[in-house]
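re: ur question from earlier - yeah i can do the single chain one, its not a big deal. heres the input i used so u can compare w yours
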Amino acid sequence: MDRVVDTDNVASFLIFSNSKEGKSTLASTAPLPLLVLDAEGSWKFIDEVGYKSGVPLRKKAWNPMLEPIPRYDGTWDVVRVHVDSWQTMQQVYRHLTQVEHDFVTIVLDSVTELQRRCKANIRTTSPQMDQQRWGQLLDEMDGVIRGFRDLTLLSNTIRCVVFVSEMAMKDGQFRPYMQGQIRDTMPYWVDACGCLFTELRPSGDQQVKVKRLLIGAGVSAAHVVGERFQGRLPDIVDNPNITEMMNAIYPGTNGSKESK
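and the output i got, formated as tokens:
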């Protein structure tokens, strides 16, 4: 398996949608090997790449509080961390920044649930979320999202970071669901913020479901989306696949300028 050593070919994605729309399934199409911080338990059902592709996705469990970071040995594709506490998430970040590893993609699924873990951790010192603690929550989540995004600049392997989020309506627009001011700023911290949805299309006497990822700003006034890829991807990506999107963003490189 190729390992990227040129960090110019990197991208960060924020994917949001209604519940059970397929966000985690879409994240499973990102370049391998992949590390997923699974805060919702959805990855226990993902055993293949994407939706009904028939391509198996071999998973390995990792407890970062007790075990060293797994090195890629050809027996797994995805390392899954069950994030049941804020301390677990922090320990993963320490591993990624202090120890050599082989991950090409990092998935945080979901940042909405991770924020709830962070809030619960803050409330262990005080049950009341006063202004000071709301500020602490904003600062810690700001640090987490920017920190994981910037791993593409700090690691010689990581080239893709995917944030998964629930969806909410605010000020007449659908957007990633987070508590506090971060819900308004987070979409601008990544290279692409997209809304995943399902469209029914006629096929003979039946209708088929087509997954679509809206990333083009201005296409829908009701959605907070956008991208920085200068037209390398369409405004709406049909049947999205993150690896294919990365290859389209960096054409002629198979997603990598240099590999070893």
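The first strand starts at residue 11 and ends at 17. not sure if urs matches, ping me
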